[in-house]
């Protein structure tokens, strides 16, 4: 039996999907890229933007039509707003938060699906795989699918706060989507309640994962040969604040990782996303500067360059504070690249307020900015306000800001021409005969090569040309030569 999962949204959703795949593999399902041949179809949803939710509705509409000719089970998890959840209950067979993933085998068994794992009274391997405080032993063997008697039944676990039982979810070993890049969730939920954001309503309040678990997973990945590891959380630099006196701070966590990097003798890079300016402390920046294994790339969402807009967004930082952080980064880690997130067309954004955002693009000279056109999300505070910026204005501001960002990114990339840089090869580039890679600062690079064995390896290239969001070079050597 086969499954197909559609993963939408951020890196956290990708990480969640890796744990979902591990559970399904443990039940005896096998993954397929062709959704038409799958018996189990799922979505890891993203409620951050309406476009993401529209994709979910489009998918399930197609899948439900297929039920007329074959038996299917559909499910949705991930970031789901309460309003969307009520609608999904009528469209999907299973609707559950990721924190209740350990109970997925039990949910599926109620549909009478026989899987290879279910042919035994208890699969010891799967029991070891899903280590929860209250073990749920899958035993679908007692059920048999009778097409004539099959009646879809909506199965939903009793309503819970999204963060409840998240520890059980973290205990599930993920099925990593790559042999050299991995994600480690260190935190779930958010306490910031930015007025435009749905995350507190989909994932709940902040819960920090035990640092000992994080370090164990990281050591395991490094020993397995992973080259890059990204620490994930909605607000990583508030890590540990929900467990004061019981858990270390984010800076101390980075210190432990850095010390392990020094002692391990292994070459790897650790990234983190996303921090909040309100909680970004100097000691976090100092740790990144101190340790070679902590990548010299900072993702620092600004969202707007205007203080009045930041107040309406409830960001709890102003541009003066943001400038102080960037100055500290430039002083302690001058080689670091700087990424950000920006929303254009937020409710009430005047042309003058938008121009202030244009100005900071030139002031901070971001290497990358993920720019979004504002769209209200049900449940978030700003959804009660008038969405009063016309779509054509949002689009025009988006293009102007993107052009400004690309101008400064190109200036930076041109300065790299002639330099030798170590990059991590990720696979084939879209340009035929080339491999794709990225620098420590996460700038996309490519170089001519037909060597598939370089994927997942560090190589050194000499930069020969630059574009706004990428560089091109010539292969000099690869690690070990």
Q: So what's the overall shape?
A: globular
- Rg, rounded, reads 23 Å
| Number of distinct helices | 14
Share in β-strands: 15-25%
Q: Give the tally of β-strands.
A: 18
State the low-pLDDT regions, or none: 112-163
CATH class category of the largest domain? Alpha Beta
CATH architecture of the largest domain: Alpha-Beta Horseshoe
Please summarize the sheet with the most strands.
5 strands, parallel
Mean pLDDT: 83
What class do helices, strands and sheet pairing give? alpha/beta
Give the termini separation.
44 Å
CATH superfamily of the largest domain: tm_1862 like domain
- In spatial order, strands of the major sheet run 2-1-3-4-5
- Estimate percent helicity: 25-40%
What fold name stands as the CATH topology of the largest domain? pyruvate-formate lyase- activating enzyme
Instruction: State the domain count.
Output: 3
What does this structure look like?
This protein has 481 residues and is α/β, with parallel strands linked by helices. 33% of the residues lie in helices and 20% in strands. The protein has three domains: 2-142, Rossmann fold (3-Layer(aba) Sandwich), CATH 3.40.50; 166-414, tm_1862 like domain (pyruvate-formate lyase- activating enzyme); 420-478, Nucleic acid-binding proteins (OB fold (Dihydrolipoamide Acetyltransferase, E2P)). It is built from 14 helices and 18 strands. A five-stranded parallel beta sheet has the order 2-1-3-4-5, sandwiched between helices. The radius of gyration is 23 Å and the shape is globular.
């Amino acid at each position: 039996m086969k499954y197909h999962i559609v993963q939408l949204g951020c890196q956290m959703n990708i990480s969640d999907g890796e744990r979902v795949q591990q559970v399904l593999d443990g039940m005896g399902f096998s993954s397929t890229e062709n959704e038409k041949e799958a018996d189990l179809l799922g979505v890891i949803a993203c409620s951050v933007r309406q476009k993401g939710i529209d994709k979910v509705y489009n998918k399930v509409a197609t899948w439900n039509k297929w039920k007329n000719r074959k038996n299917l089970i559909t499910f949705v998890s991930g970031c789901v707003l309460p309003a969307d959840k009520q609608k999904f209950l009528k469209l999907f067979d299973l609707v559950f938060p990721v924190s209740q993933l350990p109970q997925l085998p039990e949910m599926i068994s109620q549909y009478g699906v026989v899987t290879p794992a279910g042919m035994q009274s208890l699969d010891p391997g799967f029991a070891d795989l899903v280590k929860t405080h209250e073990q749920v032993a899958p035993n679908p063997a007692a059920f048999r699918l009778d097409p004539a008697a099959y009646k879809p039944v909506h199965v939903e676990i009793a309503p819970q706060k999204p963060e409840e039982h998240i520890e059980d979810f973290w205990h599930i070993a993920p099925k990593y989507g790559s042999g050299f890049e991995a994600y480690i969730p260190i935190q779930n939920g958010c306490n910031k309640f930015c007025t435009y954001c749905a995350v507190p309503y989909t994932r709940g309040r902040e819960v920090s994962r035990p640092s000992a678990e994080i370090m164990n997973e990281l050591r395991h990945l490094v020993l397995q040969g992973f080259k890059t590891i990204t620490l994930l959380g909605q607000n990583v630099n508030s890590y540990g604040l929900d467990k004061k006196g019981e858990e270390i701070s984010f800076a101390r966590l980075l210190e432990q990782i850095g010390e392990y990097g020094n002692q391990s003798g292994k070459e790897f890079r650790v990234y983190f996303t996303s921090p909040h300016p309100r909680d970004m402390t100097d000691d976090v920046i100092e740790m990144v500067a101190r340790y070679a294994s902590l990548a010299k790339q900072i993702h620092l969402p600004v969202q707007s360059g205007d203080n009045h807009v930041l107040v309406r967004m409830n960001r709890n930082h102003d541009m003066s504070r943001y400038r102080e952080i960037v100055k500290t980064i430039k002083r302690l880690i001058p080689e670091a690249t700087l990424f950000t997130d920006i929303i254009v067309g937020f409710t009430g954004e005047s042309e003058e307020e938008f121009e202030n955002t244009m100005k900071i693009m030139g002031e901070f000279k971001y290497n990358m900015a993920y720019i979004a056109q504002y769209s209200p999300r049900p449940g978030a505070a700003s959804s009660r306000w008038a969405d009063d910026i016309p779509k054509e204005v949002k689009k025009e501001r988006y293009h102007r800001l993107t052009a400004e960002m690309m101008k400064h990114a190109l200036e930076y990339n041109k300065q790299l021409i002639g330099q030798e840089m170590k990059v991590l090869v990720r696979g084939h580039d879209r340009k035929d005969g080339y491999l794709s890679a990225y620098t420590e600062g996460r700038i996309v690079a490519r170089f001519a090569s037909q060597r598939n064995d370089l994927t997942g390896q560090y190589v050194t290239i000499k930069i020969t040309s630059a574009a706004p969001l990428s560089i091109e070079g010539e292969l000099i050597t690869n690690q070990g030569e």
